[in-house]
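batch_manifest entry 22 of 60
target: Nitrogen fixation protein fixH
source organism: Rhizobium mesoamericanum STM3625
requested by: lab member K.T.
priority: normal
notes from requester: please return tokens only, no post-processing; we will run our own comparison against the previous entry in this batch. if the run fails, retry once and flag.
--- input ---
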Amino acid sequence: MTARTAPHGFTGRHMLVAMISFFGVVIGVNVTMAWYASSSWSGLVVENTYVASQEFNAKAAAMKALAASGVAGTLSIRGNEIDYAIRNKDGLPADVDDVTLSFRRPVGDHEDFQVPLSKVASGHFKVRHEVRKGDWIVEIVSRKAGAVVMHEARRLDTAEFGQ
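--- output ---
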């Protein structure tokens, strides 16, 4: 007659393996997510939030005045050519000396760039610069004798321009 051994069931060793596996997955996911969060966005919106809050009302009033002026611009991107036309309320070209575009990615700042446009004609500006595919926030500042005539920001996807 042979001796039969009873099954051992769930032991402390099984519990240890289950806990290490569970917490290993939780810690692994947290480390991965933390790495993605820190590598994809600087988190910096303004340098000093207190100063930005003090300047908010003045900036908001200036933006309302610019919007009321009726000056509007049209941005187009074809290949490496960026084209900007700016018009007065009456549809005539606006009298502007220079236009500067600041391209920023919504997430991350490693591809951001700023480019001044060359005046082609009254109210018409161009520049050749590569704009990589994807989403961008474009800040457009138009000036006449150093004074801001138009300041606008747009979110765009290069797919809108057939890129």
